[in-house]
Design the sequence.
């Protein structure tokens, strides 16, 4: 996730942290075509478009994976849909985490219902 900071003080002086850094902090890169950048639920945050619907909580609030901000397809074949308790995931967890004797879903379905990898 990237954070948007003020552009400066209005006198041409750039504010600290205004440079765009992938996976870091910075302003939305104006040099990139708009289809390459996606806003998060928090208007001061952005990600690269290819990070949407990748199963990973890139925005920090799951807005890159869940409605109403993002319309993602259902979990793919390598994923299990459940209410995740792991911050890294939102609505689906990788099936390799199923039946590993560790709770990843709030309803424990990853341990008792998921068929596994």
Sequence:
């Amino acid at each position: 996730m990237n954070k948007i900071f003020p552009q400066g003080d209005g006198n041409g002086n750039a504010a600290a942290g205004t440079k765009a850094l992938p996976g870091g902090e910075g302003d939305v890169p104006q040099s990139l075509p708009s289809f390459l950048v996606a806003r998060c639920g928090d208007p001061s945050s952005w990600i690269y478009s290819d990070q949407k619907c990748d199963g990973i909580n890139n925005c920090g609030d799951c807005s890159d994976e869940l409605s109403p901000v993002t319309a993602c397809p259902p979990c793919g074949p390598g994923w299990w849909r459940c209410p995740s308790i792991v911050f890294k995931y939102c609505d689906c967890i990788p099936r390799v985490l199923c039946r590993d004797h560790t709770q990843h879903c709030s309803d424990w379905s990853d341990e008792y219902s998921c068929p596994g990898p």
Q: What stands out?
A: The longest helix spans residues 109-112. Residues 75 and 92 are 6 Å apart (CA to CA). The longest strand covers residues 45-48. The beta strands are 2-3, 37-39, 45-48, 79-81, 92-94.
